[in-house]
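Request: Could I get any protein with tokenized structure?
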Amino acid sequence: MADFDEILETQSDFDAGDREWLHLLVADWQVVADLSFADLLLVIQRDDGKYVIAEQCRPSTVMTLRSDDAVGKEVPDDVVSEIKTAMASNSVFHSTTLRKVDKATVCNVYAPVRCGNKVLGLVVRETNMSTRESNGRYESESINAGKQLYSMITQGQFPYHDAMMSQRHNARVSDGFIVLNADGIVRYAAPNAISCFRRLGTLAQMEGHYLSEIGTQLLHPSDPVPETLPLVLSGKAAVDCELAANNSIVSMRSLPLYDTNKRVGAIVLCRDVTELRRREQELQTKDATISEIHHRVKNNLQTVSALLRLQARKTKNEEVKQELKEAQRRVQTIATVHEGLSQTVDEIVDYDAVISNLLKMSVDLATMKDQHIHIRYVGKFGMMPAQDATPLSLVLTELITNAVEHGFEGRMEGNITISVGRSGNNLNVVVEDDGSGLATEENNGMARSSGSGLGTQIINTFVTNDFGGTVRWEDRRGGGTRVVLDMKLRAAQDDDDEY
């Protein structure tokens, strides 16, 4: 099935501006469908002359007429003549016949989509006639408002050219709407909209009063006034804002209504977002707390690292001094991971940035004076949870330290390549060096493949126990050592267990 962009590509007459206008239309036409209690279809003409349904919108305020997906389908032959007539019309075109969609009797209305001097297609409004049999005032006001927005499509007035949306507004017609006249006086307020303003502290009748006066009376002299609040309350521009009062928050969006080039009123959508914003605030507080914890852990670990460094300087036993330096390096590795976690609101880190700094630090600590070891990366680790990042960092820093200290002992230059392959939860890491190789290192007492060294034991323990993986030590073709790690990320394993 073709998607919206693919269908638009079938019309060679559309330029980038035309496609953007149609994208703006379908991004905002849900409000028209909801107010009108009707399904909407966007019909365009392909280069082969056929008319095709490019997009559809189901109303959330009434049962849809179309349970199937109509996108990509050609329009029936019996409505092609109406579509051709509607495309040539300068205003909304009403069908002269009623159609059957399943068991429903449907009236089609067509609005040419105008952008500048070009007609890009039609928005077909499919109305189930049974929904018009017994309408109260709520339904009548909603339908009339929807008709006004719908007719604005034919004049190129909807979607709005200069809409200023903060992207936080998520009110729907069912959340509550207010209809204003051209002067900003409330002509009708839906029950849910009245409830929103009651929670803000409004006790007076809304109909017949200026919405701007009702809204501003809720504010205290010291309260900050959102920049767009006057425009929303007067309905003079397509903007949104939030009004906070009486420990409640209401999100509002204004949709000006135009007749030709004159503004004749507005629709103001309202939604009580008090609980939503409270939860967002709680999440922000939680994220800040977690970040602060990681920051403090990092500071504490750096203190421990500094103490180990001081102790190493004081001891006269070279073997003890070396062991203290190794312990300091391992503590610093964990501290660096927590530093990365303290800079994000999530419990995940950009592991490529973290490990790059860690391994550079490991090389600097392990190399001798005038020794130059170069590290090259192939592939990416991606984002990684802290649960996996800490043990994996210890594994990699141990491998790099071992390679520098034993593989390049007595050599002034060397190269280490880290190749990463990640597929979902599975992680494959290959660490290669062009050093002296396994045989020489084992003769020097390293015996890494047998796990006799502490560094080797750390690597085997974390890979096997934490990641359920394997470690293979091999001779590198061309000389040197090749270590292959096959692992499954531990956090990912926990996620799998939940399903």
